[in-house]
Structure formats: structure tokens, C-alpha cells
Amino acid sequence: MAEIVEPGDMEEVNEAQGLEDGSSLKSTMERNGKTQPDGPVKEKKLGMMKQFRESMKRVGERSLLASNSKGSKDRPYSDQGGDSIDPEVTSLTHQLPPTHSPSLSAGSPVASPLKSPGEFFQRKEGEESAEDSPPSQKKHSRTHSDPSTIGDSLLKKGASIRRSLRLVGNKKDKTLKQEPLQSVTEITVEEKRAGEESVEIKESYILPEIPHTPLSVMQINELIKTEVLEEAHLNLLSLRQEFQRERDECTEEASPMELAKKEKDLSILYRAMQEKVKEIVRNSNSLPSLNKELLMHVARVIQEEEKREAEPGGMVGLGDWRGAWREAVSEGVEATLKRVPLDRPEQNASWLAIHLGLLGKAIVENLEKVKRELQGSYPPSFNVFSTYMSCYHGAVSQHLNTLQQQVTDLKDYYALLDWIINRYESEKIMGSPSLRPEMEAEKTGLSLEEGFLDQLKGKYCMRAKEDMRASLDKILELENEDIWIKKQAPETDDEHFLNSDIHMDIWTNVKSNAVNSKRIDVNLEMRVVCSCLEELQQFPKRFETKLRYCCNSVENPSLWADYQITYINSFTALMEHMEGYRESCPTQVDHLSREVDGLVNRLVQSLEDQFKNDVRPYLRRMMTRKWLSTDEDFQQLYSRTEKLTHRCLQMRPPYVQTFLSCLHYYVVKEYVSQLMKNNYSCKNRKHDKAATKMRVQWDKLKDLFEEMTTHDWLHPVGDHLSNIIGETNKRDIKNHLKLLVADYPDISKKHLSAVLYFRGLMRGRERQAILQRFTELKRELGTAGNIGDNRRALFSDMQVTVTNTDRLADIPFFCFLLPDS
User: Fold this and answer.
1) Per the record, where are the segments of Basic and acidic residues compositional bias (predicted)?
2) Is the peptide bond between 654 and the residue preceding it cis, with omega within 30 degrees of 0?
3) Is the pTM of this model over 0.85?
4) Average pLDDT over all residues of the chain
């Protein structure tokens, strides 16, 4: 049976042995004659003590849980005021294997640079090392060592916690619930973590003692691999110093080959150290909360290496450690961005918009982690948040450059520009309240390459122009399929105008591009609108070609007329919409206006030509014998004219007034011009019948056009001519000439001769007298300035068929007088 020692006896033993630090250990061992000359035994003891203390902590925690769960009956000495030693703790002390610390090489007398001897053997109150017992007493370590003291302390601490949280029941309560104990543990851990995060890493530090004799290259490399950076770096510095001493001394023992080999090893180790540092930094923002102490060691390695860059004798390491750290930060940021999900365009039509949304979220989350965790893991001189922010600007800029090479659609160009200009610096990403106040002192803009944004805007404009052309082609295709092929009649709008939706489709396309681009940039809006208008300039001619090709087989003239009126209305409305962009794109609007006006005028002319071809046969039979005896031809003329004028009421202004005025002018001119062909001459007082008929027909035509035309100056011509033709007394015809010449100054003597011929006055003195008076009136009115008014030219556009009587009209009047008269 092992002898149980009371706590008071253990204190006396501790005082006698004097285990306060490493020096006391050494002196005690020398006095007992147990001093070990080499390091392995010490290494074994140190490793065993370290693991022993950790085991005691775990046992104490387990004892705490056990004490809470067992109650007072499991503690037999508690009633007497004493503490018992847990048998489980005692058994564990015998089962602990001796461990070798990786901090010391075999045969090295120097302690690990991570911990000074005092730190290794520093003990709590009542704590004693197992190494102070003589070797013969090691098998009774649970009797002569201090686990009872540790257990006693932990049990007291557990009892205090239980009393404070009222978790201890009375003696009758055999069991206690485990949940309250777990919650207490969680709260303690969280408070401890919050306390650790609040500690700021200071700029200055004290470098631990560099070992005089370094570990082997393989051991240092293994420390680097296992991320024991502080110990690895101290041994690396020791190896470096050793190399420098040997190189400076140039002893015979250190041959050049050995120095070269050691220099190579040193270079390899430094490279491995730097790569490990970069690896840790790269992963620090992507892995779950990385050990803050590990990042602190990274910072100290960088700081120490920066101090030693200027050491005499040359730099054996890689140099520029701070630059390597920034490079690792940048690489970590790039890796973070690459992990954001990105679909292919063929997989998802909204691939880019979705990716950019996730990208912004990832940026904010990672910068929040930098602010919350990583920033406090480095000294202030590292400017961690600023460095990460700068790296994000650069990495995102490069990522966007890669993305834009995959963009082909207008919506994706828009998504990219909108994200860069409107979203990246907004509160959704870089301006997020969660990044303040650190973000307030930082640059929030991207580090885009020069000209990248202008290039992207240019591609956006080109894509908008290409889409505009494709949209116009689609409009033509739909119009052909839905209207022309089916020979479907056009619809009317709410104002009863013939209507097609093509102008709305075009305007909506341009307007949407303008509105979207304005959200990005006002200048971009102007460029996009100008691009769309440039493409739209070619559309009127393309439309006309397609219309005539597809409607060539339309046999119904009324349907063809409706089509032409419909598209006159549509392009007129389109031009009204486009006039809103004249201020921003004056040149493009002017060119488009000329093209649209040309198309509308050609459609109007085509409609007019169709009417002319339709009524020409009936007009040719005016002022003939058949005309005098029947109204059939005039009725056909009137019916077709009336039908077209009513159809034109479905044409939008201003072209409806223009067209109806041209139609009015044509009907009047062609009706009157039949008198100039000298096809018929009224005889035997038939001129009265002709004049009456002309007056009736003229009134009908005048009533038809009176409210539609702007050429109201044409109305009197029929009355003037019918008065001349119907005048019974030939001598009184001269009285009707003044009003005719005044209203229509372009009438000539040939025109009047033709009217007189139709009247039946082909020769004689009366005819010559009438013509003489006409000449005098022309001369008189010519001084009044009424000749040459092109706006009222009617007769000048009429050709007159020359007859023999017209040739006699050129002979002077006195030649017709008799000698005795």
C-alpha cells in the first residue's frame, strides 16, 4: 500500500527540496548526486512533467464533474474538512509515458527556446514536480508527488462554483442534473474567448533566448511542417548564427563544401518557413477561426526577419517578408473569390447577376471576419484591415476583368457595370455599416486597369446597337407573319387612327436601354441612345423594301391603302418619340428624321399614285360628249375620291392635311385640265348645259374637300370657268376675266383660248376682243405683283393642246377688221 501523505507534509517536502525554478532543480540534483550530464534524461523529464501537468488539469476537470454528479457520499473526507486523492488520478500518474519534446535535439544541454526553465517548472500553490523524488521512489510517485494537492485545489474550486451556482443539493439528494453544469462551462468558455479577442497584440516584443546549439535540419523542418513556428524560427536563427560564425572564423573544421551545404540547408529552411507563413496567412481568412497565437507567431517571425535584413555579412534568408505576407494575403483573397459559385451561361441565364450577388456577400463576410478576428492577431504596424481592403480591390478588379471576357449579352454587361459603379461602393458591400469605422479611412473604389471601364461601356453600347438591329429584324418578321402574310386588316387605336405597334416596340426598346444605362451613368445613357438611333436610321429603308416585297401580291387596293396609312401613322408616332432625344443626340435625330420623312413621303406618294391610277380613266372622259350626256364617269371619280378621303381621316396629322390637300389639288387640276385638251366644243347652245353640269359637279367636289384641304384657294376656279362657259352673251365674257386673272395669275392666253374653244367660241371678233382684254388685264395685274406666286400655281401645270384657232389668236386684232369698217 502506498503511504498517503498529508498536505502539510507535502509542503514541508517542497520547502526542503526547493523546487522554485530550474536552477533549484539543478542544485538539488547535484546535492543528491543525481546530476545527468546529457540532455535526453532532462528532455524526458521535461516532457513528462508537461504532459503530467496537462493530465492533472484534465483529471481535475473530470474530478469536478464527478464531484458534482456523485454528491456528498462520494467524498468520504469532506465531512472531516479534508480532501481525498482520487484513485483514478493516482493510477494515471503511473500510466503516463515519458515523452520527448520536439524543442530539443539529442544531446543538447539547452532548454527549449519556447519556455525558459523557470516557466517549465513554475508551479501553482502546493504543486510539486515528480522529478524531485529519487529514482527509487518513482514507483511511489502518487505518494511523494503532489497530485493530491492539485486534486484538492480543483475540488475546492469545483465546490466553490457549485455553491455559487446553487448546484449542490442536500445530502439526501443523490443525483444532480448535468445541464446547468454544461451551461456554466459554455458561458465560461465564451467569456474567456471574448477576453482573449479583446487583447491587442503590441508592436514591441521580447525575442526568447536563441538556442546556442540548433536542432537538426530535419527537426527544424518538421517543426515548420507542424506549424510550431516560434521554436522553429528560434532554431533557424540559431542555425543562421552558427553558419555566420563558421563562415567568419573560416576554421579548418568548416570546409567550404560543408559551409555551402549548410548555406543550402539554411536557404531551404528559410524558403520552407516563408512558404509555411504564406500558407497560414492564405488560409487565415477562409478557415474557421484560426489560432490567434499562430498568427501572432507569424507576425513576430516577419518582424524579426525585417530587423535582421540589414545585418552585416549578407542576408541568407529570402528577404522582403512583409511583401511575402501581402502576397499571401492577396492570394488568400483571390482564393476566396474563386470559391464563390459561378454557373456557366448555358446553365443559367442569370449566371452573372447571381454570381455578383454572392460575390458581394462573400466580400462583406470576409472583411467582417478580418475586422473581428484577424485584425487583432497582428501588431498595429501590419495595417491588417487596410491591407486586406487593398487586396480585395485588386483581386476583385482582376476577377471582373476575367468575367467580362465571358460576357456576351446586354443584360450581363449591364449587371457588370451596375455592380461596379452602383453596388460595390454602396452600403451593400464596401459601405456596409458592419465595416465601420475602419472603412471610413479606406479607399472604397476598385483598382481597375486604365481604360477598363470605358472599354466595358463601349462594349455595352455595341451590344445595345446589335440588339437593336436584332430587335428590328424581329419586328419585321412578326409584322410579316401576323399581318402581311395573312392579309389581315390593320387595327385602330382609341383615337380611331389605323395603328401598328411597331413604333411602340421600337420606342420601348430604345427607352429601356436609355433608362437602364442612365442608372449606371448619364453619359452612358447618351452613348447608348445615340448607338440605337444610328442603327434605327437604316430601318425605314429596310422596312419599305420588306413591305413592298411582302405586299406585292395584295390585290385589294383598299387593303393596300390601309397598310400605307397605318405605317405613315406608325413612323410619324415613332419620330415624335425620338424627338425627345434631340438635345442629347441632335445629329442622330436629324438623320433619323430625314429617313423617316423620306419613308412617309414615299408612302404618301404611293397612296397618291394608286389613287391617280384608279381615277385616271374616268378623268379622261370628262369634258366630252359622253360626259355631257351621262354622269357615270363623274360618279366613279367622286366615289373613289370620297372613299379615299374618308379612309385618310384615319391618318394622323400632320400628314393627313398634307395628303388631302395634294389630293384636292390633283382632282381640281385634272378636272380643269380636260378643258385644255380641246376634245369637245359645245355647239347649239349646249354650253349652257355644260356650264350647269360643271357647276353642280364642282359644288360636290368643293363640299367633299372643304373641311379637309388647306388649298381653299382652289374653290373659285370652277365657278369662274362655268361662268365663262355659260355666259349667253359673248361680249359679256370679258366681264368675268378680271376675277379669273386675279385669283389665278398663272393662267395664260392659251388656257383661255382652250376654255373659249370648249364654249364654242373658236373664232371671230368676239374671241379676239376677249383675248385682247385678257392681255390688258394680265399687264395691269402684273404691275400689282400677282404674277409668279408659286403657292397658287394651277394653270402653269396644265398642258394645252394647240389648235388652228390658237394660231389665229396670235394675229393682231386689226387684221380682222373690214376695209369699210
Assistant:
1) 40-61
2) yes
3) no
4) 77
